[in-house]
Design a protein that fits this description.
By secondary structure, the chain is α+β, with helices and mostly antiparallel strands. The longest helix is centred in the middle third of the chain and has 37 residues. Strand 9 and strand 10 form a beta hairpin. The strands form 3 sheets. A 4-stranded mixed sheet has the order 1-4-5-8, covered by helices on one side. Strands 2-3-7-6 form a 4-stranded antiparallel sheet, covered by helices on one side. It has a two-stranded antiparallel sheet with strand order 9-10. The chain is about 50% helix and about 15% strand. It has 11 helices and 10 strands. The structure holds flavin-adenine dinucleotide (FAD). Flavin-adenine dinucleotide binds next to strand 1, strand 3 and helix 11.
């Protein structure tokens, strides 16, 4: 077994950390308050290759693996989960779906723009009445000559408003249940395709989350992604990889909260000594450090397996389940260590507490992860 990161991986971590602390850190609260999409940060992150981490250089990507990808998402999220989720959703969902399931023509058309971050990608699976039960998709794709007419609405799409292209799921064959769902690539500007309401969220507020509406939106056959009727099965495959990045998102925020609490505990004095000298605080920090390390091992194991082409359905769900629950728990402990200052926006604890909760929900709730894990082990 080898638990050490290579020199290149350590250098990558330092580069991302520096970028996150210097470029994102000072702007975090402003973007959180205004809920604006952080275009300036996204553009700079794209220049560093963060929007195409896991894709071959021949498609404009950075040509790195999942271990590096997890490193990038973790380090960005340690400073700001909103930027972390942007990178995660863009890489793992939209771009990876086109890379894994697209025709060569589709790869050539979309990947260089996406991997370079010139275009921002969205992936619209969830609907108002089809969340955990994505097989209950209602959006329809009706055959029309050499194309399809899409009708329906998606909810909670990351990059639903700012995205240049979206992968959307619709029912092509209503008599075939989940095997009647197909995926389509829809470009911004396609008539009948538009963002709906932008959500006003508890956390990850600089991340763009919105409805996506399709009203008699016509797409040609060339826009079908993967085989007809394979959309749902392909989506589950894409989520196996995606969940590793949500786990990394949670891990990064857990680390951010922990680092902030560790520092604060050594600076804040009460009863004539630093609060870090109280055993109660020490035990909180010890438990946080231990659980975060355990989460990290699960996350990097899943990434390592993915890099070796191994099946990761169970391991990515375990990593996502554990890291997200540790993230929520660690953020709450951090807030407690900050005391009253944890409750106000001048200090970082409250934002981690709000932001990290998404990780137990997005790309399958904790309950759904447990169902996936149980299915795999039984
Ligand atoms: C900020 C944000 C970003 C998102 N980004 C995207 C995106 O880019 N693309 C996309 O397609 N979706 C996205 N989502 C949607 C997300 O994946 C869904 O919210 C999630 O899958 C849960 O679906 P739901 O919200 O409809 O909850 P429901 O499915 O209605 O679940 C409600 C509760 O019931 C539980 N539950 C449901 N079924 C079962 C069961 N069988 N057994 C036990 N418990 C169950 C759930 O665990 C949960 O606690 C995003 C969501 C958010 C909040």
């Amino acid at each position: 077994m080898e638990f050490a990161f290579s020199d290149d991986q350590q250098m990558l971590r330092r580069t991302v950390r520096e970028f996150a602390e210097n470029e994102i850190g000072p702007k975090v609260m402003n973007y959180d308050e205004t809920q604006e999409f952080p275009w300036d940060i996204v553009r700079k992150a794209a220049e560093l290759g963060f929007f195409g981490v896991i894709f071959p250089e021949s498609y404009g990507g950075a040509g790195l693996g999942y271990v590096e990808y997890v490193t990038v998402v973790e380090e960005l999220s340690r400073v700001d989960g909103s930027v972390g989720i942007s990178v995660a959703a863009h890489n793992s969902l939209c771009t990876n779906h086109i890379y894994e399931c697209g025709s060569e023509e589709q790869r050539r058309r979309y990947l260089p723009r996406l991997t370079g971050g010139t275009w921002i990608g969205a992936w619209s699976l969830t609907e108002p009445t089809a969340g955990s039960d994505a097989g209950g998709t209602r959006t329809t794709a009706r055959r029309d000559g050499d194309g399809f007419i899409l009708n329906g609405s998606k909810t909670f799409t990351t990059h639903g408003t700012v995205g240049d292209v979206a992968v959307v799921f619709a029912v092509t064959d209503s008599d075939k249940g989940k095997h009647g769902i197909s995926a389509f690539i829809v470009e911004k500007g396609t008539p009948g395709f538009r963002p709906g309401k932008k959500e006003n969220k508890l956390g990850l507020r600089a991340s763009d989350t919105s409805e996506v509406i399709m009203e008699d939106c016509r797409v040609g056959d060339a826009q079908m992604l993967g085989e007809r009727g394979h959309g749902f099965v392909d989506a589950m495959k894409i989520l196996d990889g995606g969940r590793i990045s949500i786990a990394a998102l949670a891990l990064g925020m857990a680390r951010g909260a922990y680092d902030a609490a560790l520092k604060y505990a050594q600076e804040r004095a009460q009863f004539g000594r630093a609060i870090s000298e109280f055993q109660a605080i020490q035990f909180m920090l010890a438990d946080m450090a231990t659980r975060i390390d355990a989460a990290s091992l699960l996350v990097y194991r899943a990434a390592w397996m993915k890099d070796r082409g191994m099946k990761v359905t169970k391991e990515s769900s375990m990593a996502k389940l554990y890291a997200s629950e540790v993230g929520v728990w660690a953020a709450e402990r951090a807030l407690q260590i900050f005391g009253g200052y944890g409750y106000v926006k001048d200090f970082p604890a409250e934002k981690y507490y709000r932001d990290v909760k998404l990780c137990t929900i997005g790309e399958g709730t904790s309950e759904i992860q447990r169902m996936v894990i149980a299915r795999e082990i039984l």
